[in-house]
Amino acid sequence: MTEGKRTNASGAEERQKEYMDRAHDALAVITRAHGRPMRASVVTFGCQMNARDSEKLRGILSAVGYELTDNELDADLVLYNTCTVRENADLHVYGRLGRLTGLKARRPDLIVGLCGCMMQEPGVVAKIRRSYPVVDLIFGTHNLFTFPELLYRILTEKKRIIDLWEGTDAIVENLPVKRTYPFKSGVNVMFGCNNFCSYCIVPYVRGRERSRRPEDILSEIRGLAGDGVREIMLLGQNVNSYGKTLERPFSFARLLREAAAVDGIDRIRFMTSHPKDLSDELIEAIAETPKVCRHLHLPVQSGSSRLLRAMNRHYTREDYLALVKKIRAAVPDISLTTDIIVGFPGETEEDFRDTLSLVEEVGYDSCFTFLYSKRTGTPAASMEDQVPEDVAHERFDRLLAVVKRTGEAASSRFQGETHDVLVEELNKEPGYVTGRISQNIVVHVPGTKEDIGRIIPVVLDDCRGFYYFGTRADLH
What we know:
globular, five-stranded mixed β-barrel
């Protein structure tokens, strides 16, 4: 077991490529012995950053020789890429491990691995070591790029491996990726977070901010465009602070403009934006760059300035509303979405009503609403005046009712208009496909699998709350 380790990126890419070759040879021996391809399943919990990490894990597994499957119960290797933002995420993982325990009793060669944010949380690994012998491999967020080496070891050493680092400065480029969609992709622009919101465990499990070099990001985007990708999502815990850790500072607004100049890329999305760092330069770049989608996810967390101060968010209610006004003046057709926490320690009825009134005033297209989840190690976990569960649930239900009403009203403003839709998948309804407009609103429209990955003009006929049914304008 290795813990408390740090490293830089020197030689890491070459080392891991060498271990991929070794793991490929080791798996080939196992495959011949079984007389069939070995199957692997990567199950993702959490955010878009985790989803992108899982694409890298799948890319490595595929390069080594595994056949990928979505059915973890049919796999020879199961890897859970975990989230720990809320307690429910942890409980889901423990429940899945319980289900695999019986499976491994019948199939002792099954390899079970855990990685991601939950593994960096204090006490979690000790619990897994004690209570879940089904787990063979554990690693964290800081050394995800060492997966080829860890995979080789687990295939050849046949013993439990726990390899956790407390931090890293490494950004390792050019490892394989297996994308979920051929026509769209996430692109990491930075890792970690420096904000230390009092309720959030992310800076502790993801580490401090470190930005990728712009030339590496743009090279990746050009490669994706050459491979048929039409939409990219630039990813970071707080993309607005991109570039501050580089030797030569490089703003996120400038990165957006240069990404938009890449031929073949039609749409650019990004998340997540912290309100305190959203600059006039970035608003101007969004307004002036047609390829940047008209959707901004701008987490507010609370409408109460008192609670925002306790959350360590570094803005007030008035600051946030002024920012929204500035954004809408520059980009009138923008879609705004947000995150809101209900039941933060010390939240009063007055604080909660401030949140309700802010939702009414902003008129979000949709809101991601969460009950406060106490995370050990964060300042909020030890705050006094924890809100009783029944009070938090009652407020949560009231918030949902307001979000539904205001969201439906905001989303319906495009009814009757024609918008371009990037078709993403077949709909469950025969004869229909599903995609999104620039504002990130879902649209169902007649189509076939041949339309997947295409951008088609659609008349938004019928708003059904947070989504539309439309008719195709390209067939008229």
